[in-house]
Specification:
single chain, alpha+beta, Alpha-Beta Plaits, 2 domains, four-stranded antiparallel beta sheet, 3 helices, 4 strands, 50% helix, 24% strand, globular
Length: 108
């Protein structure tokens, strides 16, 4: 009987501890979000021929950590990227575009 009591008491402690931590985690996750400063850059991209090219660039760059959004546009041969410079860099973004077979002619 005593063992059952201690087992139930232990489970209760785990439950209370788990509930207390989940509230702290959600507060911590929300606080830094307002402090993140995203950088926006537009690159002139060569070698795009179709909508699949746009999708390829968007997919590749979108896989990088810290990338918030990517929009490749065939009509004006550009790639617009919004990203967290603390997690990725323009150099990494350019490398990802070039890895897919396109050239980055410069920044607009």
């Amino acid at each position: 009987m005593r063992g059952l009591f201690f087992s139930l008491f232990g489970l209760l402690l785990l439950f209370v501890a788990g509930c207390g931590n989940s509230g702290k985690q959600s507060q911590t996750a929300q606080e830094p979000a307002g402090e993140i400063r995203l950088t926006e850059v537009t690159f002139q991209v060569g070698g795009m021929h179709c909508e699949m090219c746009e999708a390829s660039i968007a997919k590749g760059v979108g896989e990088l950590a810290g990338v918030d959004s990517v929009k490749a546009t065939l009509n004006d041969s550009t790639a617009f990227v919004r990203f967290d410079p603390g997690k990725t860099s323009e150099t990494e973004i350019i490398a990802q575009i070039e890895k897919r077979g396109y050239t980055v002619k410069g920044r607009l």
